[in-house]
Amino acid sequence: METVILAVVIAVVVLGALGGLVVGSRRKKSLPPPPPAAPDITAPPAEPHVGDEAETPRDEPRRTIEEVDLPDGSAPVAVEEPPALEIPEIEVPEPTAGRLVRLRARLSRSQNALGKGLLTLLSREHLDEDTWEEIEDTLLTADVGVAPTQELVEGLRERVKVLGTRTPDELRGLLREELLKLVGTDFDRTVRTEPETSKPGIVMVVGVNGTGKTTTTGKLARVLVADGRSVVLGAADTFRAAAADQLQTWGERVGAHTVRGPEGGDPASVAFDAVKEGKELGSDVVLIDTAGRLHTKTGLMDELGKVKRVVEKHAPLDEILLVLDATTGQNGLVQARVFAEVVDITGIVLTKLDGTAKGGIVVAVQRELGVPVKLVGLGEGADDLAPFEPEAFVDALIGD
Q1: At the N or C end, where does the chain have fewer CB atoms within 10 A?
Q2: What pLDDT does 98 receive?
């Protein structure tokens, strides 16, 4: 009995101990963790407001408004002006009267090799066949041409035989007379720019590249402006690069209006528009610079004929000037023939006549075409284009 009671007591004690352990573990699990310590927070510095100083004010002397020097408004305020547009200055060309007289000295210095050579040969004591052959060679070298040379030599032979004595003055006189016969004094060398009916006068300038055609057109505009004429330029040379720019520059120098088209455009269209604007503006003269056609290209020459036909829908051409390089000699005659077949040449302009002894081209080209030399270029200056005067030309050839 006692044993049973002891076992019950032990069981109760064991159960009580186990119950205490369970309750203690539950309590430990349910306890929350202790709260963390509160951090020390420092308030940010307050931002300055409008009117506040950026830093702690310092004790500094301050000037009152009476002590501050204020501008009194008398000083000018610099205002930058926009750059002014550059307007090309219009030149005033020199009058045409006496141009060749002024340039005669230059022509004489460069051209009188022909005249001096002939005078030297004619001054020989005995004029045998060898001397006359030398005279012929001198004339042929100067590009006078075969037929004119024979004509001149025959005239000289006859005059020398009749004259008998040959003083220097007599030789110079007879040579001058014979050369004047060749050059011709009965041609009408006026550049026709005044139409019989209504304005404007229309002048077309033709020639191959390199002869100075565009430059001649610009110089001719200067000649006309110097005579008080108003001019419109037609830049119908649309194939050569910068040809239109070159012509427009010439026009701007003297205040002439330039009509141009797109590069590579239709030359006939530009020429047509130039004449149309010339009429609308009431201009006195329209100068049309055509392309420098190669005389061996048939298609291009046909196009030059088209330009002529299109222009004549407005009005007939008053002048067709062929520009030739005086230094090309017989090749220039070939060019002249082909151009004469396409358009009716009415006058010739000889350029680069200075610095060469080939003045005989004047005779040859007039004989070839039957039209006169009307203008000559005697230099690179803007006013070195002058009317051709046979007497002055011959005097320059034979010298003083």
Answers
A1: N
A2: 61
Binding-site residue positions for GTP? 207-214, 289-293, 351-354
Q: How far is CA 220 from the centre of its chain?
A: 16
Q: Between β-strands 347-351 and 319-325, what pairing exists: parallel, antiparallel or unpaired?
A: parallel
- Write the CB contacts of 367 (distance below 8 Å, at least 6 apart in sequence): 145, 147, 148
* Amino acid at residue number 379: G
Contact 383, 169 (CB under 8 A): no
Contact 394, 177 (CB under 8 A): no
How buried is 286 (Cβ within 10 angstroms: 0-12 exposed, 13-18 middle, 19+ buried)?
A: buried
- Token pair, residue 325, equals 């390089």
Q: Which residue has the tokens 């026709």?
A: 192
Q: How many residues does the chain have?
A: 400
Q: From the centroid of its chain, how far is CA 326?
A: 24
Residue 126: predicted pLDDT:
80
Residues 6+ apart with CB under 8 A from 222: 91, 93, 250, 253, 254, 382, 383, 385
pTM of the model: 0.72
pLDDT at residue 24 tops 60? no
Report the alpha-carbon distance of residue 353 to residue 21 in Å, rounded.
139
For strand 373-377 and strand 201-206, is the pairing parallel, antiparallel, or unpaired? unpaired
Q: Cβ distance 253 to 222 under 8 Å?
A: yes
The arithmetic mean of pLDDT across residues 46-61, rounded, is 53
The answer, yes or no, to whether residue 374 has pLDDT greater than 90, is yes
- Contacts of residue 250, defined as CB under 8 A and 6 or more positions apart, other chains included, come to 214, 215, 217, 218, 219, 221, 222, 233, 256
Q: How is residue 99 written in tokens?
A: 């141009």
Q: How confident is the model at residue 29 (pLDDT cuts 50, 70, 90)?
A: very low
* Sign for the pseudo-dihedral over CA of 182, 183, 184, 185: negative
Q: Which residue type does 118 have?
A: L
- Whole-angstrom distance, CA of residue 212 vs CA of residue 381: 13
Q: CA 131, CA 227: separation in Å to the nearest integer?
A: 48
